[in-house]
Amino acid sequence: MDEVEPKDGADSRLPASNAAANIRPGHALPFVAPSSYLRPKTKPRTISMSEPTPMSPIDEEQIQGLKGLRDFLKKRTSYDVLPLSFRLIVLDNDLLIKKSLNILIQNGIVSAPLWDSQNSRFAGLLTSTDYINVIQYYCQFPNELDNVEKFRLSNLREIEKAIGVHTIETVSVHPSRPLFEACSRMLKSRARRIPLVDIDDETGRETVVSVITQYRILKFIAVNTEQHTSLLKKTIQEIRLGTYKNLATCKMTDSVLDVINLMVVHNISAVPVIDKNNTVLNVFEAVDVIPCIKGGAYDELKSTVGEALTKRPEDFQGIYTCTEGDRLESIFQTIRQSRVHRLVVVDDDHKLRGMLSLSDILKYVLFHGEEGDYFPPS
Ligand code: AMP
User: Which terminus in the chain has less CB density within 10 A, N or C?
Assistant: First the structure.
């Protein structure tokens, strides 16, 4: 999928809305931070066991906002998310894997649909996970570097089998199905992007129309539904959004291979880089692997995270942070204005607290408070 997009707003970081309550001379503790004033407070109330817990105005607004977003996702289709003009780079399954890397880098993209030209069929989606699998293969069979050089994209499934990775069939969706369905399928399969596949009326063959990402969907929501997202006034701490326990982290001096291993073990797409005081310095993302193995330079995987991060493209947008006191409303505002792929949750001293992925936000928007089987049959 072509990830080159119009440049968004200029802000580079999400300001921590809940700034530290600085201890200044003359102030008696405790005193409140600015956002506490803005957040409507629920009145303390004695609740009897027989009486259902009443909802606070802020809860009601939150539910109304989520309902608005869900209705929107059910009315809009995946087609609607596509920009008026876009390019789609599809790679032939017969291409050498090492050549595919150069094509992605030259075109500034991080994934592409694959085409089986022998059978005229869509053959899946090439993503950074496939390159991580090739790296794992190289690590497990270091004497086979010559073979690794000769691998083609059509060999990716064999590589998965050789390293014992469970092969997941690429899920796709018809472009005119509701956007809710595309989101739901992505969340079910833990995919961060989904190909839009149509059937050609004349030939009856599959046609890849485009690929949409969680990033693009959340941007679409943020840009078009401010009337709903502005109702999401609860903080991410209140709605327990994101991951705060068993965080996978790394240091600047760790090797790229160690971080790749962390991503595989935890099934995550990014690892925050911290110093010895738990202060967040950067984030190593799965896509950062791509420049590391450009030209078959697998030895570079032994280099450090710090060295690898210097290979990022010049237009890299930076990493985004938020605090647990930020409301989902303000997170959507940042998504609207910037190119956010995840947020690192930090405290007021910029120490790591958690990770907030786009999948966490999407899951909350689609399913929070719902019961039963969320996912439509594939
Ligand atoms: P992602 O791979 O970014 O879609 O995230 C998948 C899930 O893993 C989400 O629930 C995230 O909150 C969580 N997650 C993301 N990064 C980390 C990390 N470094 N350590 C632990 N969990 C994470």
Answer: C
How much is the average pLDDT of 70-87?
A: 95
Ligand 1 mean position to 270 CA, how many Å? 7
- Lowest model confidence (mean pLDDT) among 15-29, 57-71, 146-160, 310-324: 15-29
Minimum-distance ligand 1 atom for the alpha carbon of 286: 2
Indicate whether this model's pTM tops 0.70.
yes
Measured from the Cα of 243, ligand 1's closest atom is 12
pLDDT at residue 296 above 80? no
**Integer Cα distance of 360 and 342 in angstroms:** 9
Output the CA 339–ligand 1 centroid distance in Å: 18
Q: Determine the 3-state secondary structure of 112 from DSSP.
A: strand
Rounded distance from Cα 115 to ligand 1 centre (Å) = 30
Tokens of 247: 């965080």
When mean pLDDT is compared across 42-56, 168-182, 223-237, the lowest value belongs to 42-56
Closest alpha carbon to 354 in 243, 248, 268:
243
CB-based burial of residue 45 (10 Å sphere; 0-12 exposed, 13-18 middle, 19+ buried)?
Answer: exposed
Query: Which numeric CATH code is attached to 78-224?
Result: 3.10.580.10
| Same fold yes or no, 78-224 and 234-367 | yes
Query: Of 162-166, 170-174, 237-241, 319-323, which gets the smallest average pLDDT?
Result: 162-166
Name the burial class of residue 14, with classes exposed (0-12), middle (13-18) and buried (19+) by CB atoms within 10 angstroms of its CB. Answer: buried
Check pocket membership of 270 for ligand 1, CB cut-off 6 A.
yes
Domain ranges of the chain: 78-224, 234-367
Contacts of 234 (CB under 8 A, 6+ apart): 58, 59, 62, 327, 328
Find, among 196, 184, 170, the residue nearest to 79 by Cα.
Answer: 196
Q: What would the two tokens of residue 182 be?
A: 């595309």
Residue nearest to atom 21 of ligand 1 (CA): 247
Question: What CATH number belongs to 234-367?
Answer: 3.10.580.10
DSSP 116-133: ETTTTEEEEEE-HHHHHH
